[in-house]
Design brief:
The chain is α+β, with helices and mostly antiparallel strands. It folds into two domains: about 140 residues; about 55 residues, no CATH class. It starts with a strand and ends with a helix.
Length: about 200
């Protein structure tokens, strides 16, 4: 079962997207905070007319809360409970946004590829959480070996959250690929060391 999270509202670069999480009343089954947590893998569905890819595969690396009420210190004419009844449009202006970096794609035939995707998502493209079986398939190359080719893309983002993101992803992969835990631990130690040394240097 796949969990719908939200829809794309903008992009910052070819691989950096902003997704607005579905709010109350937009879905029967509301996404839980754990569904769009830091380090969760997601699929951004591409339109059906594109034959070379079915979805972009990315990971959530940031969260932004929008609240138009912040900074409004004037008197309130009605309590928040009554606003839900009389002014529901105002409440819809609050939103949770998550940043997603695309690390690869899924072809229309189902095969997964890591790297910079050639296609971009559209505005309003639906975003869903990636299932564990899809996550495993995304991390295996053509020979069935564990692959993290996207690590260099993440490190090149020059974002202070990237080292912790990589550590989170590696810990997730250790649980999915216990037979590769030794190699993953070496990589984890390397990332952890760089996260300490580089800011200091």
């Amino acid at each position: 079962m796949t969990t719908a999270i939200g829809k794309i509202v903008k992009s910052n670069t070819h691989i950096d997207y902003v997704c607005q999480v579905y709010g109350p009343g937009e879905l029967v089954a509301q996404p839980l905070p754990t569904d769009y947590a830091f380090g969760e893998f997601v699929a951004i569905e591409l339109s059906g007319s594109r034959s070379s890819a079915g979805a972009l595969i990315g990971v959530i690396y940031n969260t932004l809360l929008l609240n138009p009420e912040f900074g409004s210190l004037g008197p309130r004419l009605s309590p928040r409970g009554e606003q839900e009844i009389f002014t529901p449009d105002y409440l819809s202006e609050t939103a949770t946004l998550v940043g997603i970096v695309a690390l690869g794609w899924q072809e229309s035939g189902g095969a997964f590829r890591q790297g910079v995707p050639g296609l971009a998502a559209d505005v309003d493209a639906p975003v869903r959480r990636l299932r564990d079986d899809e996550l495993c398939a995304f991390h295996l190359d053509g020979a069935g070996r564990l692959s993290l080719r996207y690590a260099s893309v993440l490190m090149g983002m020059n974002n202070p959250l990237v080292p912790q993101l990589l550590l989170t992803l590696i810990d997730r992969l250790v649980a999915l690929f216990p037979e590769q835990s030794r190699q993953l631990q070496v990589m984890r130690n390397n990332v952890a060391w760089k996260s300490i040394v580089q800011p200091a240097g």
